Fold this protein.
Amino acid sequence: MDSSAPWLSNFGWLLLPLLAAGTFFLMRPRRDGRPEAVPGQAPEGETSAGPGRRPPPPRLVAFWWSLLVFLLLWDATSLFFGHSSPTVAKIPYSSFVAQVQAGNVDQVAIKGSEIIGKLKQARDWNAHTGLLSLPSARASKQSQPESSAAPKTPAAEQSAAHPEPELAAPKTSATGHTATAKPSKLEPATVPKAPAAKPVSVTVFETVFPSSVGDPQLLPLLESHGVEIVAAPKAPHWMSSFLSGLLPTLLLVGFFWWMGRRAMNQQQSIFGAGKSQAKRYGKEDKPAVTFADVAGADAAKVQLQEIVSILKAPDRYRFVGARIPRGVLLAGPPGTGKTLLARAVAGEAGVPFFTISGSEFVEMFVGVGASRVRNLFKEVKAAAPAILFVDELDAVGRRRGAGLGMVNDEREQTLNQLLVEMDGFDERTSVIVVAATNRPDVLDPALRRPGRFDRDVSVGLPDLAGRRGILGIHTRRLVLEQDVDLDRLAGVTMGMSGAQLANLCNEAALVAAREEHKRISRADFEVALDRMVLGDARPLALDEATRRVIAYHEGGHALAAWLTPETDPVHKVTIVPHGMALGVTEQRPEEDHYNLSRPYLMARLAVMLGGRSGEEIAIGEITTGAENDLLQATQLARRMITSWGMSELGLAAYDSSNEDRFLGYDLGQGRPYSEDTARRIDEAVSVLLEERHGAVRRLLEDARERLDRLAKALLERETVEFDELEELLGPRSA
């Protein structure tokens, strides 16, 4: 029998190019003259299979289903009905030996323990008993006169001793009744004998070789009777034949289906570009953040709590004729908690919360961003009352037509659509847009007008009480030692944002875990604060001369700050390299500064120039170590003269523009003052710096002995704390 898989036929291989040709023919773009579909919408006459997607063409679906059904039917038909074979009689091994001895076996095929043979003459086979009829004795003797000389197998001897009964018709008596045979000794008389099955004429038989017992006389017996012997491996199971025929077809169909889907997705990808990318948080999965989790922004929370009240009970405000605000703009430095405040509003109000970044609106193709804006506002309005939070609004809401060659059609169209959507709210729709930005000055004026963003909420850096509250929130789950004073820690972290304070707490926990401390101590917070402010310490193999220069440089900074009462006190001096600096003098203000006076700024200039002065006094040479000090001093002196009116040039502000040059708003415009005024400004900056340099040099020369003591201590211990500074330099000038 042929066991090869039907899919390997020639017709199956001819189907392969037909599949490929049909797939690419049906996947070709349609050119029926219909207008192009709008991104995010299904073409006319077709239903959308999802947001921004079209269903597959009906003819493609019909083609694939028809092909799949045809291949399955073809495989099943070829596997089960394609190979017709005669009836195979399953007979006992003894009956097979008897047929061999009778010379009625033409050929046999041995497959493992199975023996399949073909008879020379057809014999009747009883399917019930499994026996084949034997030829008559006379015919047997005539056909095989020499059969007695053939060796007999044990099975043959057993068959001769106990001959098998031939199939014969039942005997009938003279009276016409059927004679009933007496029951055998081996068969109980009480059990009726099964009716004889109708004999079937067969030429092919099958039997099982007794491998456990063995029959060494079988092959000689077959050879003596001229039986053709064919040895073949055992036929595979029908399941393996089924899988070998069907599995390759399924893999082939799956491969072409995957190719078709990929080509269709590439062809229709433009229709999904206009889908909104916003993430939605419902009531069941709303952000688990409330106003209790926000600290350091009390003024902003007061304004946003009113927004929460409007979302919870909008009818109370409409009853008195109030219009619900359409937008709230959160503006402030990075890390001050603008996103956290928006999540807290959603958590307090218990309404759906949609969040998206402004950069997700802008794409390469013109019109895609506008389509996303339309799709987004459609979703938000359907879920009203709801909150839409747009982070980094300046990415899409930047001023239009600014500068030279800065026109971006896609961004401007997206901004125009955003303006239309925010201006077209139904007054009865309880949808509030909350946006956050670090640069409110670059936003388009049309976006900030009342009616779109009705409220501007400033979220600044936290004050002392705010920093204490933020530290309390972020140390809730930390295991602290008794020596950790959050009030003191809040006092020395002036100018840090909420994100920086959260990072400080996490860094302290990491330091404690690395040092295998069971609790987080004050020393761990000090290490974490130094890492954030000064940078990581990096060991360098410096020679003694370089270390001496660094010691006098940092000693000059520290001594100038110690002897100048208007400046911030010195907390630590070190000559261990941190970050990009070879040495650091750390000053920590005692209180928050909101308004800087001229004496304070002059004292800061003196401290900045103290390092260069210390090198000049002790070393007698100048080095490049003062590069950053001179840069900061020059910038501060220029701002004092051009922005704050702290010079003999008068009250005029010569640098009134707060806009960055890269934005291009003042591109093509000249300076608002003359060349003579520019020269006078440069001269005033130089005079101010020279005057401060001379003053701090005289101050250090008068305290040369204390400068040498401090430099010597730095060379010995590398780091000097505040308490040691008091011992070396005496009480700080009041």
User: Anything to note?
Assistant: The chain has a mean pLDDT of 76. The chain is about 45% helix and 10% strand. The longest helix spans residues 238-267. The radius of gyration is 49 Å.
